[in-house]
Design goal:
This protein is of the alpha+beta class. It has a domain at 4-119: Jelly Rolls (Sandwich). Helices cover 46% and strands 22% of the residues. It contains eight helices and six strands. It has helices at residues 4-12, 18-24, 83-88, 109-118, 121-146, 149-159, 169-176, 180-192, and strands at 29-33, 38-40, 49-62, 68-74, 79-80, 95-107. Strands 1, 2, 3, 4, 5 and 6 form a six-stranded antiparallel β-sheet that branches. It starts with a helix and ends in a 5-residue tail after the last helix.
Amino acid sequence: MNLPNFKKYLIEKGGLSEEEYYQVNSLIQTKKVQQNEFLLKEGSICSHFFFVEHGVLRFYALNDQGKENILQFATENWILSDRGSIFYKEPSNYNIDAIEDTLTVMLDEHFINAVAKVNPNFRKQNEILLQNHIRHLYRRISLLLGASAKVRYLDFVKTYPDIMLRVPQWMIASYLGVTPESLSRVRKALTNEDFKS
């Protein structure tokens, strides 16, 4: 299967050579998910990291009232997973589903070990990517706790520049921790300031 984004990811971010990529190519597993189809449901154990070759995924929890709290989106070249569920082999508190038809590469421990055997430097590169992910999560928590809706929205646009027309406004509001009405007001105010989004 032709996976140009994943190939580029392993070579540029993972440190593999072209030859090393083809050594692990036969181990690559993919999964196509239709819009609204789940990759992970609350209560099940997550066993994969999902690299988005094309499409959009979301990672979210349901509160006691059944309202969705979206923690993360993933578009092309992003990886999404419940790391806690994978590491501790515990049922997940989260859901991952497709916002649009999506092709994912399913990464598991077997694949990661195989890549690390071909290129031992891959584990170090993977660790750097994990630390970067943690750094971004800290920033997101800080914004949710202390930033205005406008600042959170501007950060969202910077983080997900290609997603505005692919995700419903209510999902963006959920991610930002504001009501859709508040998000509309923020966007209107920014439009009046000649902000383009």
